[in-house]
Amino acid sequence: MDHVEGALSARDRVGVLDFVLLENYRSEDAFIENLRKRFQHNLIYTYIGPVVVSVNPYRDLKLYTPEQMQIYRGVNFYEAPPHIFATADNAYRSMRGEARDQCVLISGESGAGKTEASKKMLQYLAVCSTHSHDVDRIKDRLILSNPVLEAFGNAKTIRNDNSSRFGKYMDVQFDYKGAPVGGHILNYLLEKSRVVQQAEGERSFHIFYQLLAGADQDLLDTFFLERRPDSYAYLSKGNCTRVSSIDDKADFKTVYNALKVIDFTQEEIEELLSIVASIIHLGDVVFTSDGDRAGIIDAMPVNRVARLLQCPEEILEKALTHRTIVAKGEKLLSPLNEDQAAYARDALSKAVYDRMFTWLVQKINTSLANKEQYRKHVIGLLDIYGFEVFQKNSFEQFCINFCNEKLQQLFIELTLKSEQEEYLSEGIEWEPIAYFNNKIICDLVEERHRGIISILDEECLLPGDPTDLTFLAKLENAVGEHPHFVSHRTGDVQTRKTLDRDEFRLRHYAGDVTYSVTGFLDKNNDLLYRDLKEAMCESKNQVTSSCFPKSELDDKKRPVTTATQFKTSLNQLMAILMKEEPSYVRCIKPNDNKMPGVFDPILIRHQVKYLGLMENLRVRRAGFAYRRPYEAFLNRYKCLCKDTWPNYYGKPKDGVELLCQSMEYRHDEYRLGNTKIFIRLPKTLFATEDAFQLKKHDLATTIQATYKGHAQYKKYKRMQWAVTMIAAHWKRVAAKRLLERRRNAAQVLRRYINGFITRNQPPNGDNEMFINHCRVTFLHKLRDSLPKSILDKSWPTAPPNLRETSALLKDMFHNNQVRRYCLNMSPQKKMQMQEKLTASEIFKGKKSSYPESVAQPFKSNRLTPQHEALKSKVFDKKYLSQEERPKYMSPVTKYDRHGYKTRPRVLIATNLAVYILDEQDFKLKDKILYENLTGISVSELADGIFVIHAECTDKKEKGDVILLSDQVIEATTKIALAAGKINSIQVVKPGGLAYTMSGGKEGLIEFSLGAETRVEKGKKGQLVVSACDGN
What we know:
Alpha-Beta Plaits; seven-stranded mixed beta sheet; PH-domain like; Myosin_TH1; P-loop_NTPase; myosin; about 1050 residues; MYSc_Myo1; motor protein; alpha+beta; about 45% helix
């Protein structure tokens, strides 16, 4: 269903979604009431034909989600509710389908949502166009150019926390596949006066406050800045340095990262920010008056500006307080007074920021440029100031309103042209439309030699000392008789009461605006003294030097005035827009307090007037209010005519004609074109839609009754047939299944009984099934009760005819368990098991402490971290030869051979010898080569004493070594294995054990049973070891 017609039934509650369908379209009250109804139901978009009227809701209505984008993607303009996405999609499809350049003109007051509208359209184009790596790179740059331009070109005003203070036209370039491949931005009339002056409650451009809030401390120190914007003159003129709805710190991070994505180098970013910082410091330059000479009170700000801009300080200081005048070919240095010096300082600040902003836009354009030579199509987004009327209107409002006059002229021309083309293509006679042609106002402003801009430029060029009042006088003489111009001198008595002597009034298309000429000449001249230009040309800052080229100093021509520059740029913009197919978005703010849900009809009426919406509607309604393709119209309303319902198989045009005759349309109420029906008055369409809404109930009732009856009858017949068929088939199948089950059961029972009777006979035909069943049962039981461990010897009892098989399975299973255990054993574990096996062969049944050692795994290294450090530092370097490898290391206690005093030692067994080392410094105490090892003796008791017997080849050798170890089984086994002398270990019974001392002497160790282990010196000088036997 088309949304235009579908929404008509709710028009009394939520209004019409297209103002063209307003019955009383000439009434401003009806227009505003329709806006109010839709606004109260969160319907912020309404059409005037192809024009979108947008009311700022001041809250998130979830209208811009990816799901919303998909609703409008590739859909006809009127097939979805009014939305800015519909305009974006229509422009994109027209560009691809018709290969025609498009443009979207977005206008409205500050705070009406123009900037947000342009961002949402750009996001839609980015999402809905084709994708690739290069395309996504361009999309990122297009989208990220917005926060950069907003930072440098937007500011907080009384009406808007993020007000664009410049006009912007962005061209998004697309290739033949519809992918964005580049872009270009044109900027217009930056409000550079905001750099040096802000109204109460307003701020300068965002970037100044973002820099102070978001830059790291090192960067601020580099720029000589502090995080206190209220301490800088230029930033605190409006007494509003912080805004609750703005996060300057986070925004700075966004801008900084965006600059990197847009291809700014780190050096360019720093130079750009240093210019911003220099302007902040320039505002703190304060002058004092010494007669007619101005002097600088504090030179520190000048020094910082010079260092940041990298220009000579003495040249800058001189340029701020003096001016070079050329008189009769001679250059004279004239000092400036205090006011002139302040003017020069502010002029420099404005010029530097304005040129920096222009350089920034050019740099972004370079990043977005596409150098391919193939033909590209564009969609342009024009985000420009709307018509402005303040309590006091000056030069800026004059330029802005002149721009809107030109755009209104363009809109009327293109709208009428579009209407004429559609009428011509449909074969309908064109009826001339009466409208206000504002060309007369445009000529009043821009006509050569006679227009206001030409007169203003002429006055600026006059020698002597022209003033704003002399300009006004000349204006009154030149255009005083013009019907759209009036001043205090040229007006009647009643008019003079409303105009001061320094004011004039223009009658614009949107209403009368009074301008004060104060400041017109200065703002139009916008002079920057040559001395200041020369100082900037000396800058080593690359951005500044490119903004102030030295070639500019050689140009003797007078700079073009601001108004002429703006007029030229505007005419160029008009030429661009005339070549493109336009779409329009008119933005309205509902209240001045930025509050959601508040609708101020007085403020709305003011904007409707100055946006020219009533004029737009009147032009659109001058012909036919509604037009629709035959197929869509016939498909919706065919039920209103018996000749077209339910289906019409002829030509759609003939069907629509029958429908119109049935509805008794008068001839002057409609026309039939080649592909569309045109309806002149909304009431004709409303009557048709109301008839359709009424008819739907009758049709719905008839269709519902017929369908329900037919559906129930079909359902009954299907169920009846199904019951019969299912019952018959099921009875037959159930009987066959029962018979088969009984036969099988009887056979199985018979075979089992015979098998049981003959179960002990050799297998035969009678008992084979029963024996197999017994086998399967046993195997299932065996499967569920297999031993889980290699030590588990349990096994289920087998039937008599499976005992041999059970025995074979038991052996196979046990062998498999052993094999799997051996395969899963690691080499280290296998070595441990071999060592344990060796220990078992030596000590099992011989030494009492052996059973306790079985559960403890053998280790090759029992040294502490301190021992390890000493080993690496002393033993490895002093005693260990290259061919030696440690095999076993453990702390032990050594007993002296004579007094049996205990000594803490460390035992290290290598592949060649046993080393006994001092525990404190690892000094070598004994070394026994394996070739001299004659045996190792231990007692069969539970003590830890063992003796290493060594052959004494000379008198210097000390003899056998008596040691005590907590791991005596491990130590003796490891030493025997390392020496390759397994059979050298001797387990002695309680009694005496002789050992050899130096000089061939012998000592005695006496072993005896006791309650606890004790080692002490005996009365006869022997070593007495008392220990239990382990039982």
